[in-house]
């Protein structure tokens, strides 16, 4: 029963006119309260519907949130797995690269040792065939239990104290101007022969290139694309200056070959080509020369020319002849574009003249 049903009962039981008037008012009140109550019920129903809709939205949002959280967790797990996998692969790749590098370095060292041994054998055999020998060479043997890559190459000793090529004694510093031209040409020819073979064995690109036309030998700069001229490697009666420059270029090449084998040639010993080549051959078996081979080559051609020219200027020539030879050597250097412009101001009458 509604809480206002008593109003309805009162209106129905009213008998008098006053009671009927009161009952009419009660009926109106009843209808008014009923309408209000019905409206309240409708608002409550609407609010409940809204609450249910909001609850459904919240539940849907919670589901999406849970799904996103699960997806995020899954992606984080996958990312962590990928990171771990990448780190493991990177570590494996680094280890493999390090192992490959070590293996490659071992192979390079082995090949270098084999090449060093092969070149040493070839060079030593060549030196023994042509007679590149000198007194005082230390002969070192190796035992059977030594590493074959540590084999020591050596040259046989001659009976006298003369350095020889194909049996010909190599001229001393003071003998170049005294020996006949044919003898000097034979010694230089033998030196070029063995030097060219050694350079071929060692696969070297030399600063100066030797060529042959007919029976004559010439040498020119190897770094110039344009051929600017050559110097003679065979001495005659009228080409002493060209021969001095050519011989200096040859000795410079030999010093460069020695440098590449870790042997430093002092400019004072630049004319001792036989012993310089011998030292280069002996150094093939010395591993401690590896560091010296990486040092810069600091020898200057002008100092070599000066040292070679002393062999002819200091050989009892008159001062006028010595000055003329200096001038001619300077002209050859200018023709070959090997002379510094500062040399043009040199006073040739100065006894301390030198090519700088």
Strand order of the largest sheet: 3-4-5
The value of Rg in angstroms is 53 Å
Largest sheet geometry: 3 strands, antiparallel
Beta-strand proportion = 5-15%
Number of distinct helices: 8
Mean pLDDT: 77
List the quaternary state of the chains: single chain
Helix content: 55-70%
Poorly predicted ranges: 134-160, 341-356
Distance between the termini: 133 Å
Overall structural class, as computed from helix and strand content, comes to mainly alpha
Question: Care to count the β-strands?
Answer: 5
- Overall outline: rod-shaped
Q: What is the N-to-C succession of helices and strands?
A: HHEEHEEEHHHHH
Give a written overview of the molecule:
The structure is a single chain. The protein is built from eight helices and five strands; from the N terminus they run H-H-E-E-H-E-E-E-H-H-H-H-H. By secondary structure, the protein is mainly alpha-helical. It has a three-stranded antiparallel beta sheet with strand order 3-4-5, with helices on one face. It has a two-stranded antiparallel ribbon with strand order 1-2. A hairpin with a 2-residue loop joins strand 3 and strand 4 (216-221). Helix 1 packs antiparallel against helix 2, helix 4 (240-260) runs parallel beside helix 5 (273-282) and helix 4 (240-260) packs across helix 7. The chain is rod-shaped and about 175 Å long. Residues 134-160 and 341-356 have low confidence and may be disordered.
Can you tag this structure with a few keywords?
disordered C terminus, two-stranded antiparallel sheet, mainly alpha, 356 residues, 5 strands, single chain, rod-shaped
């Amino acid at each position: 029963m509604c809480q206002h049903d008593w109003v309805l009962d009162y209106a129905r039981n009213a008998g008098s006119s006053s009671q009927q008037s009161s009952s009419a008012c009660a009926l109106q009140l009843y209808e008014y309260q009923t309408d209000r109550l019905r409206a309240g019920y409708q608002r409550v129903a609407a609010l409940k519907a809204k609450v249910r809709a909001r609850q459904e939205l919240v539940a849907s949002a919670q589901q999406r949130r849970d799904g996103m959280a699960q997806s995020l967790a899954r992606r984080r797990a996958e990312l962590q797995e990928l990171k771990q996998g990448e780190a493991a692969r990177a570590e494996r790749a680094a280890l493999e690269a390090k192992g490959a590098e070590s293996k490659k370095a071992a192979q390079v060292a082995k090949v270098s040792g084999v090449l060093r041994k092969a070149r040493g054998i070839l060079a030593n055999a060549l030196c023994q065939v042509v007679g590149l020998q000198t007194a005082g060479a230390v002969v070192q043997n190796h035992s059977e239990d030594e590493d074959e890559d540590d084999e020591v190459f050596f040259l046989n000793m001659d009976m006298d104290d003369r350095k020889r090529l194909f049996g010909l004694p190599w001229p001393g510093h003071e003998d170049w101007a005294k020996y006949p031209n044919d003898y000097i040409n034979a010694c230089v020819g033998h030196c070029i022969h063995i030097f060219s073979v050694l350079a071929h064995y060692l696969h070297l690109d030399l600063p100066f290139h030797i060529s042959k036309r007919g029976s004559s030998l010439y040498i020119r700069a190897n770094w110039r694309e344009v051929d600017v001229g050559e110097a003679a490697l065979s001495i005659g009666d009228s080409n002493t200056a060209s021969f001095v420059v050519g011989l200096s270029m040859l000795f410079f090449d030999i010093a460069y070959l020695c440098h590449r084998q870790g042997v430093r040639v002092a400019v004072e010993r630049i004319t001792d080509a036989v012993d310089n080549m011998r030292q280069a051959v002996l150094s093939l078996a010395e591993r401690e020369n590896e560091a010296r081979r990486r040092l810069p080559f600091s020898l200057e051609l002008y100092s070599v020319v000066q040292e070679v020219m002393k062999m002819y200027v200091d050989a009892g020539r008159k001062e006028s002849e010595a000055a003329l030879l200096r001038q001619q050597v300077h002209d050859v250097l200018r023709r070959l574009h090997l002379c510094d412009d500062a040399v043009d101001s040199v006073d040739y009458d100065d006894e301390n003249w030198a090519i700088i």
